[in-house]
């Protein structure tokens, strides 16, 4: 079903429609009027213009759009990796406009990030890389962290590879380690930026299907940026961006 929304003044969702996860306004991601520019003075260039976007509890939203349309910038704002300039972004209940650095750090600890390239540390084993995500969690001894990391790696099909260094794993296996690392601390939200960009079709699909299944089981919402038409099937909803604006939203499964 195509619910294309025309213009940037349109509401983020069709009005009056019940959303999973409660009333409009309390979803894990609530963006209103996000505008963002890089550069100063004459070099100033707007890359996001009045973006409204919502991710409901447990929802998997794919964000597509041409290169340069502002997808990564939007994701880094939502992930509190970059400071807000204009608009409102409530993420897991935290308003990011005007938030203190300590609040942004705390929020980042509740988000699982997956990037285009896996960003694993080459001198640590798969299990040690995943266990690092648990270091912020006070009260977990190292042995317990490593045990949980091994369980998470088993859940992504890497039980036999926990003690390998990233260089000894295939691209798809490394990205599965990145999925395990993002999920092991039970985040309230997953943000993924082109997670299949460096993978062939089969391993790309394996990785995102695994991510979807694990997130669904836990009720973890996902906002995933992708160019890749081969993985659109994992979405509950697909949102298209162009030139810094949201141009279209569609329900993936009617
Ligand atoms: P996408 O992820 O959709 O490719 P980006 O958010 O990376 O889009 O980029 C949006 C626009 O902002 C592009 O024109 C890009 O060149 C520009 N841009 C991205 N990062 C920076 C930066 N750190 N400084 C200046 N311009 C940037
Ligand atoms: Mg990008």
Can you walk through the features of this model?
With 254 residues, this protein is α/β, with parallel strands linked by helices. The protein has 2 domains: 25-110 and 187-254, Rossmann fold (3-Layer(aba) Sandwich), CATH 3.40.50.300; 117-182, no CATH class. It is built from 6 helices and 10 strands; from the N terminus they run E-E-E-H-E-E-H-E-H-H-H-E-H-E-E-E. The chain has helices at residues 71-78, 101-108, 126-132, 142-155, 171-183, 201-218, and strands at residues 29-38, 45-55, 60-64, 86-91, 94-95, 111-114, 189-193, 222-225, 237-242, 245-251. The strands form 2 sheets. The chain has a 6-stranded mixed sheet with strand order 6-7-8-3-9-10, with helices on both faces. Strand 7, helix 6 and strand 8 form a beta-alpha-beta unit. The longest helix has 18 residues, at 201-218. The protein is globular, with a radius of gyration of 18 Å. The protein starts with 28 loop residues before the first strand and ends with a strand. The model is unreliable at 1-22 (pLDDT under 50). The site of magnesium ion has 2 residues, from helix 1.
Write the layout of secondary structure elements.
Elements: E1 29-38, E2 45-55, E3 60-64, H1 71-78, E4 86-91, E5 94-95, H2 101-108, E6 111-114, H3 126-132, H4 142-155, H5 171-183, E7 189-193, H6 201-218, E8 222-225, E9 237-242, E10 245-251
Parallel strand pairs: 3-8, 3-9, 6-7, 7-8
Antiparallel strand pairs: 1-2, 1-4, 4-5, 9-10
Helix pairs in contact: 3-4, 3-5, 4-5, 5-6
In short:
This protein has 2 domains: 25-110 and 187-254, Rossmann fold (3-Layer(aba) Sandwich); 117-182, no CATH class. It has helices at residues 71-78, 101-108, 126-132, 142-155, 171-183, 201-218; strands spanning 29-38, 45-55, 60-64, 86-91, 94-95, 111-114, 189-193, 222-225, 237-242, 245-251. The chain has 6 helices and 10 strands, in the order βββαββαβαααβαβββ.
